Amino acid sequence: xxxxxxxxxxxxxxxxxxxxxxxxxxxxxxxxxxxxxxxxxxxxxxxxxxxxxxxxxxxxxxxxxxxxxxxxxxxxxxxxxxxxxxxxxxxxxxxxxxxxxxxxxxxxxxxxxxxxxxxxxxxxxxxxxxxxxxxxxxxxxxxxxxxxxxxxxxxxxxxxxxxxxxxxxxxxxxxxxxxxxxxxxxxxxxxxxxxxxxxxxxxxxxxxxxxxxxxxxxxxxxxxxxxxxxxxxxxxxxxxxxxxxxxxxxxxxxxxxxxxxxxxxxxxxxxxxxxxxxxxxxxxxxxxxxxxx
Length: 293
Description:
12 strands; alpha/beta; 11 helices
């Protein structure tokens, strides 16, 4: 059997699954893509839904590649996201409560345990594009010795993972300063170094820059590459010119695309963010502005 991830060899070959042999079901909540990652809108414009999907794809792919993960349940009402994540191997569950993030997580955890009573369950954010399976394995192994445990996000304010042992209620309280709420609820904070990829959720342009530096999965890498280019030529009289995509392909842009980005001037060599439409030879730029991530 050929492993998709190089760090998944032990799992693929039937070796020891984890340090504790604990097996987990992960529940990943995902808003409809049109509403997801709203704080990124200023930085990425209309690319936001596609980027949110790429984040979720890399999160699910990384989680499924972790030796301690038996399955991933994604709670979402977005049909496109559901289809793409199911293709990766996730089980898709409709957000029947429709009452927000924590209700969706409780719904997902309940569905897991109806099918597998006594399962270890963990809630995981859907925006961890740099997620590395070995780091997730360390977090889950550490969590397995506590009734409930959580991992704070990189900012130290929110939560990226919350776990519950068999027969223990997950009791999620995500959103805003959830680190304090989860701690107050009795969950133990996981104190580990070297698990930055599990802490690095992406809400802002700065978060995205950090995630890209860490090294994101193939879906986010491919999608973000389509959003970046280098200014190649520019004519101030016609407000048109061309850019070089990161693979060296030149693509022209016209005055409408330049005006849509709110720029006054563009210098060859500047890094730019672009929004595009079409594919292949039909690809054209609809907006060009300075890169902010």
